Amino acid sequence: MLLRHTSKEVKVREGLTINPAKTCQPIGAMYAALGIHGCLPHSHGSQGCCSYHRSTLTRHYKEPVMAATSSFTEGASVFGGQANLLAAIDTIFAVYDPDIIAVHSTCLSETIGDDLQQITKKAKDDGKIPEGKYVIYASTPSFIGSHVTGYSNMVAGMATQFAESTGVKKSQYNIIAGWMEPSDMREIKRLAKVMGINIVLFPDTSDVLDAPQTGKHVFYPKGGTTVEELKSSGDSIASLALGSISAEPAAIALEKKCKVPFETLDIPIGLTATDRFIMGISKVAGVTVPDEITADRGRLVDVMCDMEQYLHGKRVALFGDPDQILPLTEFLLDLGMKPVHIVSGTPGQKFEKQMRQLLDERSPETNFKSGLQADMFLLHQWMKNDPVDLLIGNTYGKYMARDEDIPFIRFGFPILDRIGHSYFPNVGYGGSLRLLEKILNVIMDRQDRDALEEKFELVM
Amino acid sequence: MKRAAPAGHGNNCSSSPEERHKGSKGEEIPQQYFKGMAMDRIGILEGRERQVLEKNSGVAQADIACDTSSLSGSVSQRACVFCGSRVVLYPVADAIHLVHGPIGCAAYTWDIRGAVSSGPELHRLSFSTDLQEMDVIYGGEKKLYKSLIELIEQYKPKAAFIYSTCIVGLIGDDIEAVCKKVARETGIPVLPVHSEGFKGTKKDGYKAACHALMKLIGTGSTEDISKYSINILGEFNLAGEAWIIRQYYEKMGIEVVATLTGDGRIDAVRRAHGATLNVVQCSGSMTWLAKEMEEKYGIPYIRVSYFGIEDMSKSLYDVAVKFPDRPDIMEAAKQIVSEEVKTLYPSLQKFKKALTGKKAAIYVGGAFKTFSLIKALRSIGMSVVLAGSQTGNKDDYARLKEMCDEGTVIVDDSNPVELSKFILEKGADLLIGGVKERPIAFKLGIGFCDHNHERKIPLAGFIGMYNFALEVYQSVMSPVWQFAPRKGGSL
Asked: Residue A191: left if φ>0, alpha if ψ -120 to 50, beta else—which one?
């Protein structure tokens, strides 16, 4: 087995990360920028960064992913990357003709001290940005935080650099999407519609990274939040930020710049997080919850009740990104399952506090670590010492699941070996029902596989 | 003002702007195909005209420009120095590969290449020093040292490769010193790989990797190595290809000392200088090493390719010729070829029948592979309408031009816009490329074959030719394309 190299004995490591449960900031910024309509993400760094991010996103979505790069050379890293970025802006508008270029930095450009704010301002002053076009930026050094931080920074950048306040409020609400899939964003929009409120959702990668086959290679697919929508977010009545790590900074920026009040909620994964989301909309917008949604909720609760016997006490290990695994952990607890080990490579005191609080109340004995050295090697060691019935996490979990011979559900980013995440949401009551179905399927398949012949059941 | 060059091909432009939207048979491609695609407004990047060429024997044509770095602001399909080093050394399975830098470089290169091992699999794990802001300010040498000690204690590897990433080059960590210290303390070779991403192109990364290998070669015993022996260079054992090739040579009575680096082992690398001949398959990555070994150890080298019947057979004969005092080796080679072809040839005919007249576009990493692919495709009835690579050199492109049919478009360091434009214009039915090209082919509604890291079945060797033909056949002839709008399946 591949991971036979993993030893059971857990030793404190001071420097080394083995099998990371995170990646670097720029890819998050690139993903977020793809959620703006007509936007070409731009990586201000070496060619490899852009290539790796595009490859990973392509593998995850099975869609073409377009992004440009400053193509740093040795000269640029000595004299600064300003000339490269200015040349790139020229080239991009002349040839690829986007509405927006969203520049993010890399460890290289940050270390040499390139100031994106100053360079993009210079581009504007020098008349390099055509009328009606935009260049926005986010600072995303790879040596701070994780891919989630990069996403968060780019989304906050959208708010600070686009939102305008005209003084006249519009009858609309902002929903700031934490890191979620295009399918989830589509579902959020559907739920808002059913609730009867107008929203500006940003970013929005639906119809960008789940585009239909049309016989064309479309450089700028039809989806994405438009510039008009982003500008108008400053006139919205209020914002709902979904995710305190990946979405809240944008809501704070909007409040600061345009005085739009906000509330931060979890990404609505699972029953209780979806309850809070629906009630949050209801409260903020003063709308009643339609019967359709109440019925959806009822169906989810019905299945939870019908199947509780298969879930109770089942032990789970999970890893992933803060804003996703927090509500997921809550859902598992609601189902009567036992999250035994939890790991996230993304550092952050806020997340640490939230997760601790949830676990202290409901599952104090759970192993939990985030940040440095909170990697899959550690998780695997924990699993060897204290085995589980189910593993939930991104594609890389498949090694551990195979090695330990336990059921595995793909959840999070990246998923390189299955489809579905782009098309079927995990959010809302419907999405949670699908997640529940997946959990039940793998657990019951395993029960069938392991059952003695005389105990092999037809009706379950 | 739009400064995009017209869609022609530089000075040698053979198609006027009006002809731009014509298909290969001159049929009009309806304008709506270009809507939203900006293809009617996107031409070839200014400054890139000389990296694109349409073969036109009627007129004198300038050489294609290559070996250049990509233009700032282009949506290039290329990668960096680090990527080059990482892919070359990756298959060495009993060494640890520690990426010194922020987490991304290690995360994106974690087990992305299907280079299989018959034994240890240390290469499939991801090790990083995960540099943080404080390390960038105060230096990462201590962290590197600690990480190495922890790693070597944990895994007891045969050697360690330490890859420098962009910022390591900037903050000035003395990696050589750390490596020396650790080597002294642990007793295993600890080899720095100078692969800072911005210091050149992917090719420079290959060279940095070869540099590290060169330090290992010559440190092992050459006792008991046969006079009739070779090293296989530039074969990475994707989907087990090196095993197939090795078997052929062994059947001929030749000893394979080391495969660099497929199913690689440190001890084998260390004694590679004992071989009589170097056989270089992926020339882009390994020619430098072959030349070094020739200079230092007097080992001659030949360039071969294991793709397609013609080149595969030739790569056996070319080796046999080098051992004239053993005619049985040539006899064995002939025997293998005749046996293999006897079964392979008939099995290809059903594919050929179906694929004759179909057109292919090729965009791969190295140009040498392109040569073989053109021949292989021809042997199953297909023609090549677009041929390009990320890293070909001047000689490669000259040869490519010679090989290609009239009207074939030849590109260096292309981008998605160009690729889709030429695929549509030339009416290709198949694209051969890598990870970033795959969804483009599928969005356009044509077949695809991964001839890069993500190949799932061996494409090298005689069996590989069968697999290749089968994969091309299955993709091109799939019934799903009939539902794609471009093939008339729109609602």
From this structure: alpha
| Selected residue of A143, A377, A400 to mutate for chain B interface (largest B Cβ count, 10 A) | A143
Per CB-CB distance under 8 Å, the chain B contacts of A30 are none
Please name the residues in contact with A248: beta carbons below 8 A apart, sequence gap of 6 or more: A176, A241, A262, A264
Please tell me the distance from the alpha carbon of residue B165 to that of residue A141, in angstroms, as a whole number.
Answer: 14
What residues form DSSP beta bridges with A134? A100
Among A99, A144, A278, A166, CA closest to B135: A144
Portion 310-339 of A in contact with B at CB < 8 A? none
This prediction's pTM: 0.92
Rounded to 5 degrees, φ, ψ at B226 are: -70, 155
Q: Which residue in A has a C-alpha nearest to residue B125's C-alpha?
A: A19
The Cα–Cα gap between A293 and A315 comes to: 31
Say which of B75, B112, B439 has its CB closest to residue A63.
B439
Q: Which of A145, A139, A75, A74 is nearest to A113 (CA)?
A: A139
Write down the pLDDT at residue A217. 86
Residues sharing a CB contact under 8 Å with residue A356, sequence separation 6 or more, in sequence order = A368
Sorted by where each starts, the structural domains of chain B and their CATH numbers stand as 1-74+356-455 (3.40.50.1980), 81-216 (3.40.50.1980), 229-336 (3.40.50.1980)
Q: Which residue has the tokens 């890819």?
A: A27
Backbone angles phi, psi at A69, to 5 degrees: -135, 150
- Do B155 and A111 make contact, defined as CB atoms within 8 angstroms? no
| Best mutation target, B1, B29, B31, B75, to test chain A (most A CBs within 10 A) | B75
In a 13 Å sphere around the CA of A46, the CA atoms on its Cβ side amount to: 29
Chain A residue with CA closest to B156: the answer is A5
Q: Which residue has the tokens 């293998």?
A: B336
Architecture label for domain A25-161: 3-Layer(aba) Sandwich (3.40)
Backbone angles phi, psi at B54, to 5 degrees: -110, 125
DSSP 3-state assignment of A257? Answer: helix
* Contacts with B155 from chain A: Cβ below 8 Å: 5
Distance from CA of A418 to the nearest CA of B (A): 15
**Interface pTM, i.e. ipTM:** 0.95
Q: Give the pLDDT score at B79.
A: 85
B167 with A143: Cβ contact below 8 A: yes
| A434 CB neighbour count, 10 Å cutoff | 17
pLDDT digits (tens, 9 = 90+) for B53-108: 777 666 656 666 666 667 788 887 778 999 999 999 999 999 999 999 999 999 99
Residue-range domain boundaries for chain A: 2-15+294-454, 25-161, 173-290
Residue for token pair 């990320």: B390
**Strand A315-319, strand A390-393: pairing:** parallel
Same fold, A2-15+294-454 and A25-161: yes
Q: Which two tokens stand for residue A223?
A: 């989806």
Choose from B132, B166, B419, B437 for mutation: most chain A CBs within 10 A.
B166
CATH homologous superfamily for A2-15+294-454?
A: Nitrogenase molybdenum iron protein domain (3.40.50.1980)
Between these two residues, B59 and A288, which has the higher pLDDT value? A288
Instruction: Assign a CATH topology to domain A173-290.
Output: Rossmann fold (3.40.50)
Which residues in chain A are contacts of B443 at CB distance < 8 A?
63-64, 211, 213-218
Q: Which residues of B touch A31 (CB under 8 A)?
A: none
Residue A338, CA atoms < 13 Å, CB-side half-sphere: 14
Q: Is-cis flag, bond preceding A364, omega within 30?
A: no
Q: Which of residues 69-88 of A touch B (CB under 8 A)?
A: 69-74, 76-77, 84-85, 87-88
**Residues near B97 by Cβ (< 8 Å), separated by ≥ 6?**
B86, B89, B90, B122, B123, B127, B160, B161, B163
Q: Contact B277/B300 with Cβ under 8 angstroms?
A: yes
